[in-house]
Write a structure and sequence with these properties.
By secondary structure, this protein is mainly alpha-helical. Helices cover 76% and strands 0% of the residues. It contains 19 helices and no strands. Helix 8 packs antiparallel against helix 10. It is globular, with a radius of gyration of 22 Å.
């Protein structure tokens, strides 16, 4: 399935050189930034655990017994919604991809996304390659579907944050009163933060999914004085026009794009429901509306802190700060953080196992090198 031709065939996706030399300055800076980010993140996570009541945390962790395994279920459902959204986009592009084909791809790419700083680059590259090798989706359409997914995920993220801020307004107001000394600042900050993914979504739609985007990009790249790039562009002139045609086809399928947006919104909502379940398993009786509000606020932080994998440390500190204000006891908040990270470890291992079982070791390795 995954061939050994990847080093020369990934160029249409990344426009990068075939051999990634980590010894150059850029590679060293990236590695140094990754190490620093992980160290800072681990330090923050260690602070959360170190300041916790060890006995109360252990009781909260073990209180659910074997039922703690149910904490793995919401993520699987959320990934199914996500995969369904991408299937809808691929069908709008003319491909008969099924959820059964795409779900392993999503688990594998999500493992890259979660474990690598700025992992969305590696995840998108890996997804495009796996769609080609597992689902017979051309690289061209894989790129279009990947960009379209970004556009619609950010659109649904806007709705998720707005709904979380509205339904969780009383909880956010209570936290704001305790934390900032007034009851209005935090709810409005969270609500206003919805404008960030909205602006990014609009930018992607206008800049990367506009009319003749790839043809204009092709023309611009022909001015670059790199012989190998010009040779490649000469052989892919028609591909740029065909890609623009697929973009127009997708943007014209309004029913498909809105259905995909609802699927991605469902995936966001199951992320919040997962937190509700994990809090209950940790012994904290926090309502659904407050958790939605907290998750809506921290979801943007998680997306913004790209230097640490999955917002490690920063998001955990946020949970440890806010959850006690919502009624979680001394042991439940750190137990929740540990359960959340343990869940991620399980699904990351599962995702990498799927990739390697399918012969995707090269995809994982080379995708991580472009992140």
């Amino acid at each position: 399935m995954f061939t050994h031709e990847f080093p020369c065939r990934h160029r249409p996706v990344t426009f990068g050189s075939d051999d990634v030399n980590v010894r150059d300055t850029k590679g060293r800076i990236r590695i140094a930034a990754t190490i620093v980010g992980c160290v800072v993140a681990a330090t923050l996570l260690a602070r959360v655990v170190a300041h916790a009541d060890a006995e109360a945390t252990w009781r909260a962790l073990t209180g659910a017994g074997p039922y703690v395994l149910f904490g793995l279920v919401p993520f699987a459902i959320g990934m199914t919604f996500d995969a369904w959204g991408q299937v809808v986009l691929l069908k709008a592009l003319g491909h008969r991809t099924t959820i059964a084909q795409l779900l392993p791809v999503r688990f594998a790419s999500e493992a890259l996304h979660v474990t690598i700083p700025a992992g969305f680059v590696a995840a998108d590259t890996a997804t495009t390659l796996m769609l080609r090798d597992r689902c017979d989706v051309p690289l061209r359409d894989g790129v279009v579907a990947s960009i379209a997914r970004k556009w619609l995920v950010m659109r649904s993220h806007t709705g998720y944050i707005a709904v979380g801020a509205i339904v969780g307004y009383p909880a956010l107001a209570a936290v704001s009163q305790k934390w900032l000394g007034n009851g209005w600042a935090l709810p409005w900050i969270v609500l206003a933060s919805a404008s960030v993914p909205l602006a990014l979504s609009s930018g992607v739609a206008a800049g990367l999914l506009g009319r003749s985007t790839f043809s204009r990009l092709h023309c611009a790249l022909t001015r670059v004085p790199w012989p190998w790039l010009r040779r490649w562009l000469d052989t892919h002139h028609r591909e740029a026009s065909a890609t623009d045609s697929q973009v127009l086809r997708l943007r014209g399928s309004r029913g498909a794009t809105w259905l995909a947006s609802l699927a991605f919104l469902g995936a966001w909502c199951f992320e919040a429901l997962e937190s509700v379940l994990l809090l209950r398993l940790a012994g904290a009786d926090v309502g659904i509306a407050p958790v939605f509000a907290v998750e809506a606020g921290l979801s943007l932080v998680r997306s913004a802190v790209v230097i640490a994998p999955s917002g490690l440390g920063v998001v955990d500190l946020g949970y440890a700060t806010v959850l006690p204000m919502l009624g979680a006891d001394a042991g439940a908040a750190p137990a929740f953080v540990l359960l959340k990270r343990a869940k991620e470890v399980v699904w990351v291992l599962f995702g990498y196992a799927l990739a390697y079982r399918s012969g995707g070791a090269q995809v994982a390795r080379h995708s991580s090198s472009v992140a």
